[in-house]
Each structure stands twice: as structure tokens, then as C-alpha cells.
Input
Amino acid sequence: MGKYKRVLLKLSGESLMGRQQYGIDADRLDDYARDIKIAHEDMNTQVAIVIGGGNIFRGLSGATKGFDRVKGDQMGMLATVINSLALSSALTSIGVKNRVLTAIRMEPIGEYYNKWRAIELMEAGEVVILSGGTGNPFFTTDTGSSLRGIEVEADVMLKGTRVDGIYTADPEKDATATKFDRITYDEIYRRGLKVMDLTATTMCKENNLPIVVFDMDTPGNLLKVLKGDNIGTYVCNE
Output
């Protein structure tokens, strides 16, 4: 048994690129699927997943290049659906029952999302992949994952990134940056740390949803987090 009964796993779209410059790296996708399978089956954890779309299209970046912001964000939402379908296929290929739910109606690509359906599927033993962000422009997939984590009553949000936690500064740019093992939401605000966008962070703080920020690109790390091993950074109110 893992430390958590139900988790919201937020995956980075950029991480799905692996060593590529664009799109989906099949090896990285398979690594994710294998870790999720073990988390779900061997550790008996209920798993809901939100994936970003930055490996295909990011609405905010598109707006700086002349795209209408609303249409750009809608394109980004569709990018998350593509990634969700790819992960669903990878999970199905290794025998993991799963369901794609979409924030915008697009049957038969996926079922239309609602909280009770997502919980029902998880309790029935399926992994649920929640795509399409919030279904609204001007909201990031970080905000979408915060919202879905709160809605499905997850014990924790696991934010899988390319770095192994939260640092005092960007460790790729500042060699003196030091890592936090644990930090409060208030300290994130005071230090101006870019963990997630402000809306997403505030939603987690106000609804008392803790976050673990960890390196998802290292196979096995998801399982270590679920076991309660001290990796990544734990974010909470106290």
C-alpha cells in the first residue's frame, strides 16, 4: 500500500518530448506508463492524470506570435487531448484499464468530464486521464490540475517535472540554488517562486491540497513518492 489512496498526477507536456525537439517520445511515454501501472496495480493507488500540451502547442506562446489568445488556448487544450490519447494507448497496451475524460464535449474521443464519473471510474479500478484543461481559455493546465485534484478529492497533487524539486532559484541558471525538502505556500508567495501559476497555487492553498514536486523523468521516482520516500519537495499550508 502506498502513502496516498488517491492522487492527481500532473505531467509536463514538454517532458513527453524526451530528447526530441517536438511531439511525443515513445520511450518516455512507455516509461511513464510502466510507472503508472505499478502505482495503480501494485500499490493500489487511485490515479487521475492531467497532462500539459506544451510539446505540441502552448496558447500563451501562440498569442505572442499573433494568434488570437482564445483560439490559441483552445489549440492548447486540444494538444492536451492528443497527449492524453497517447498516454491512454500506452497504458492500454500494457493492460491498464483507463478512460479519457474531456473538459469539452468531443465524444467518441473521450467522455465528457464530471467529478462523480471520474471518482466512479477510479473506484472501479480504472486510471482516469483528464484532458482539455478546464475547458476555458486563460487558464493553464497547472490550474486545471489544481481544480481537478480538488474536485476528485485527491489526497495530494504530484507534479512531475524535469527537475527534482523546488529550488531557491532556477538550478539550470544558478549554480548556488538550493533545494527545499518542504516549503509552505506562504513562503512560495514571499520568495516569488515559480512553482505553478498564481491561480493554481492559490487554489491548492485555499483548499488545503498538498503538492509534491518531483522529477518524473527518472523511472521509479513516482513509486518512491507514493511510498513516502523523501524525494522532491513537499508543499503544504504548515
The longest helix spans residues 69-93.
